[in-house]
Amino acid sequence: QLVESGGGLQHPGGSLRLSCTASTSTLDYYAIGWFRQAPGKEREAVSCISSLTDGSSYYGESVKGRFNISRDITKNTVYLQMNALKPEDTAVYYCAADPAQTMCVFTQRAYHFWGQGTQVTVSS
């Protein structure tokens, strides 16, 4: 089971850090994806990080240079550091994983386990 946290209300230009953790699995072996869904829009890929043995990470064009994905293996947590937030970053953010997926992919159907989502609102 995946659990996201860290969402909230932030002003444009501000920062938030989202966390994704699992209570019963070790995330080290899985690729973890972050996705988001804004009101009235389809869910889109934000970032992903491959398993610990690879460690590669990727970002969607709209967040490249502003967001950073990382792991803390001591806390079994994957973070999404979001900087220079914009109103268009407002969405529900989800993390996702799949035991069969070790390499980062932006294909949503590759991930069978999803968290409940955490709301991020960027507004002045």
Uncertain residue segments: none
State the helix count.
Answer: 0
Q: Biggest sheet, open or closed, and with what strands and sense?
A: 7 strands, mixed
Strand content: 35-45%
Alpha-beta content class: mainly beta
Question: Could you spell the SSE succession in H and E letters?
Answer: EEEEEEEEEEE
Helix content: under 10%
Topology, number of strands? 11
- Straight-line N-to-C gap: 34 Å
Oligomer: single chain
Shape: globular
Radius of gyration: 13 Å
Mean pLDDT: 95
Q: How would you describe what is shown here?
A:
The protein has 124 residues and is mainly beta. Helix content is 0%, strand content 44%. It contains no helices and eleven strands. The protein has strands at 2-5, 8-10, 16-22, 32-37, 44-49, 57-59, 67-72, 77-82, 91-97, 113-114, 118-122. Strands 2, 4, 5, 6, 9, 10 and 11 form a seven-stranded mixed β-sheet that branches. Strand 4 (32-37) and strand 5 form a beta hairpin. The N and C termini lie far apart (34 Å).
Task: Write a compact overview of the structure shown.
By secondary structure, the chain is mainly β.
Keywords:
mainly beta, 124 residues, seven-stranded mixed beta sheet, globular
Element layout with pairings:
Layout: E1 2-5, E2 8-10, E3 16-22, E4 32-37, E5 44-49, E6 57-59, E7 67-72, E8 77-82, E9 91-97, E10 113-114, E11 118-122
Parallel strand pairs: 2-11
Antiparallel strand pairs: 1-3, 3-8, 4-5, 4-9, 5-6, 7-8, 9-10, 9-11
